[in-house]
Design the sequence.
C-alpha cells in the first residue's frame, strides 16, 4: 500500500479554529507544503531541519496509531498539514475513516485539488493573505470552490495587519455565500510565557473584532481566535 | 402594536457562545425569565432591582433602535434573555427581521414553546444543569426538540462541576444526533480584574476539555469557552 508522509498524530483534543471550532477530534498532520508562509506556525511540516521526524505510513498504520492513542474516545479526525492536498494517496486513508464511520475535517490553503476532497465532511480552505509572502492563484481557487459547491466548505483567512484585512474583503466579495471566517494570526510563535501570550492574542483579537464589526461590506462573517493557542500557548501536539 | 419588554439592545459585536460562536451580530435582550439560575450572568433581566431598566417597545421601535446603533453594518440579530420564549409577541419582531432579510439566532433554555421559533435560523437550546438550582422538564424539552426537528437547532450545556457533566452525558444520550455543545460556566461574575478572570476561565476550560475528550460516550461534541468573557471580562453590552 502506498505510504503517506506524516509528521504528527495526536488527540483526542479540540479543534481550535474555523467552522469546526471546539470539535472533539484527533489530528493527523501530513508533512510537506507547496507554501512557506512567513509566519507559519507549523513550519516543522516543511522546513528541512525536520526531515528526520517524518514517518512514511500506510493508511492502515495511521488508523492503527489513531486507535492506539485515541482508543474509543473519538469519532472525528482532522487532516491538516503542511498541505494535505498535495497527497493523492490520502484517498486510501479517507476511505478507511469513512468505512469506520468517522467524520473527517480537512484544512488546506486551496492551492491544490484532489478528488478525495469530495469525500470530506467539513472542508476549510484558508487562502493566505499578503503578510504570508505567498501569492494566491485565484483561478485555481475558483476551480476548487466550484468543485466543492455541493460540499460543506468554508473559507478562513488569518489576519495579521490592515493589508490582510483588505485582502479578506476581496475574498469575501468574490465568494459571497460561502461561510466565511476571520481569524487572528499568532505573531508570537516564540513566546513561551502563556500569560503574556494570551494577553497579546486577546489584544489582537479585539483589534480584529473592531475592524470587522465596523465594516459595512462584511456583514455575514464569523470572527474567531485560535482557541487552542489561548489555552495551551505555543505548545505542539495538543 | 403589542409591546415587548426589552432590557438591552447592543452591537454590532460577536456572538461568544455555541453554534454561532464568532458570528457578527446585534443583540436584543428581552426582560423576564421563568428561571432564576444560581449563577445567572444576566440576572439583571429578571431580578426586581432592574425593573426600572426595562423598556416596553414595539417590534418597529426595536428594529429602529438596531438600525440606529448598528447602521448598515449587520445582517444578523441574536435574540436572548432572560427567556425570550416567554414572549408570544416576539413574532412581530421576528417577522419584521425576516422581511428585512436579517438572519436570526435565538437563545433559550427550552422550557417554553412558541410557534415563531420555527422561523428562527439558528436555535440554541440550553437546558440548565443541576448547579443552576433549576429542574429541567424533560417532557416539555422532548416536545420542543421534536417540534424543531427540521430546524437548525443545537443543544448547549453550561458546566460548572462534575454533577453538571454527568447531567450533560444524559442529555447527549437522549438527543443523539442534535449538534451538542459543552461550555464552561463563569463562576467569577464579580471578578473585575480581566487578567485574573481570563486565567481562571482558561483553567476551567482546560478542566472541561480534559473531562470531555477522555469520555468514551460523548464523542461528537464541541467544547467551547465563552469567547466574549475571555475578551471583555464581565462587562455588559459588548
Sequence:
Amino acid at each position: 500500500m502506498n505510504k503517506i508522509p506524516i509528521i504528527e498524530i495526536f488527540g483526542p483534543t479540540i479543534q481550535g479554529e474555523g467552522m469546526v471550532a471546539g470539535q472533539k477530534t484527533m489530528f493527523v498532520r501530513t508533512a510537506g507544503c507547496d507554501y512557506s508562509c512567513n509566519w507559519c506556525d507549523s513550519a516543522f511540516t516543511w522546513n528541512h531541519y525536520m526531515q528526520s521526524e517524518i514517518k512514511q505510513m500506510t493508511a492502515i498504520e495511521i488508523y492503527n496509531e489513531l486507535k492506539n492513542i485515541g482508543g474509543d474516545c473519538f469519532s472525528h479526525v482532522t487532516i491538516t498539514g503542511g498541505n494535505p492536498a498535495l497527497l493523492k494517496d490520502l484517498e486510501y486513508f479517507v476511505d478507511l475513516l469513512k468505512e469506520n464511520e468517522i467524520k473527517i475535517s480537512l484544512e488546506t490553503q486551496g492551492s491544490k485539488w484532489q478528488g478525495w476532497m469530495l469525500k470530506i465532511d467539513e472542508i476549510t480552505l484558508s487562502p493566505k493573505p499578503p503578510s504570508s509572502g505567498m501569492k494566491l492563484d485565484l483561478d485555481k481557487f475558483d476551480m476548487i470552490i466550484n468543485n466543492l459547491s455541493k460540499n460543506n466548505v468554508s473559507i478562513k483567512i488569518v489576519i495579521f495587519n490592515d493589508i490582510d484585512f483588505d485582502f479578506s474583503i476581496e475574498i469575501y466579495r468574490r465568494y459571497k455565500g460561502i461561510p466565511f471566517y476571520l481569524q487572528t494570526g499568532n505573531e508570537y510563535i516564540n513566546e513561551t510565557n502563556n500569560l503574556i501570550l494570551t494577553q497579546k492574542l486577546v489584544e489582537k483579537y479585539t483589534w480584529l473584532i473592531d475592524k470587522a464589526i465596523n465594516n459595512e461590506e462584511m456583514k455575514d462573517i464569523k470572527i474567531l481566535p485560535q482557541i487552542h493557542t489561548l489555552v495551551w500557548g505555543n505548545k505542539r501536539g495538543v
Residues 140 and 146 of chain B are 10 Å apart (CA to CA). The radius of gyration of chain B is 17 Å.
